[in-house]
Design goal:
Layout lengths: L4 E5 L12 E2 L2 H10 L4 E5 L8 H11 L2 E6 L2 H4 L10 H21 L3 E3 L12 H21 L4 E3 L13 H11 L4 E6 H7 L3 H8 L3 E5 L17 H5 L7
């Protein structure tokens, strides 16, 4: 069964946060999401160590809506942390924040997305070095998440925003190497449009590991208000794509 969600973040997020659809106080944003008919929200959390989970719990209950996913992207875009940062101390802080996010996700029984928070490939090192390090980090993250009954989803991001895990194939390789039952793939049409040869083909190849899907057009806006060129029929009927 397909269930829909919408991106939400809070007012203390950077103003030019393009992937946030609703940016307001939690109470108003969650109410708006419910009014629009969404089943849940993808929440772009701020600092998890100062976040008021009770406010989130109340907003979910008041609007009979679910938490579809917690996305810690702001750890990178707002606070400069990443799991593959050149500075070891920053890497440790990023992982600690990811653990805090995971604990919150466990409370609300939702997955955690790992996109930009992973960081980029290490300079002057072969890409295999970064892959090996990241696989170890994700195995540790998944083992910790398992204690809270939480899934972790890695999201391929286009090469204009990241130089590590760009294509669906890149993501699948990581998922298979991490080899944890609570580790899967989050796919985003916007990034797939830039990186993958066939959207339908990528969906079919990844179907056994696909856990979460961002339905956005080539201009990063959602269908219905976008002016992009993505073939949504191919997305809805991926078996027609070239594998």
């Amino acid at each position: 069964m397909v269930r829909t969600s919408v991106f939400i973040t809070t007012l203390d997020a950077p103003g030019a946060f393009l992937i946030s659809i609703l940016r307001d106080e939690i109470e108003r944003s969650f109410a708006k999401a419910a009014q629009l008919g969404f089943d849940g929200v993808d929440f772009l959390i701020g600092d998890p160590d100062t976040f008021d989970s009770k406010k989130l719990e109340k907003a979910l209950a008041d609007n009979a809506i679910e938490l579809a996913c917690i996305n810690p992207v702001r750890m990178t875009t707002q606070f400069g942390l990443s799991l593959l940062h050149p500075d070891e101390n920053i890497r440790k802080r990023a992982f600690a924040k990811l653990q805090s996010v995971t604990e919150i996700a466990g409370r609300f029984k939702c997955p955690v997305s790992v996109g930009l928070i992973r960081g980029g490939a290490f300079e002057a090192k072969p890409i295999s070095y970064t892959r090996d390090i990241f696989v170890q980090i994700m195995q540790k993250a998944c083992d910790n998440a398992q204690k809270h009954d939480v899934e972790v989803h890695v999201e391929p991001i286009n090469r204009l925003e990241s130089n590590f895990i760009n294509t669906t194939e890149d993501g699948l390789e990581i998922v298979e190497r991490v080899n944890r039952p609570n580790f899967g793939l989050c796919m985003d049409l916007y990034h797939m449009y830039i990186e993958d040869e066939s959207i339908g083909g990528s969906i079919m190849r990844a179907k056994d590991h696909l856990r979460h899907f961002h339905f956005s057009d080539s201009d990063r806006l959602p269908p219905g208000v976008s002016h992009g060129v993505i073939d949504f029929e191919e997305t809805i009927n991926p078996e027609n794509g070239e594998v």
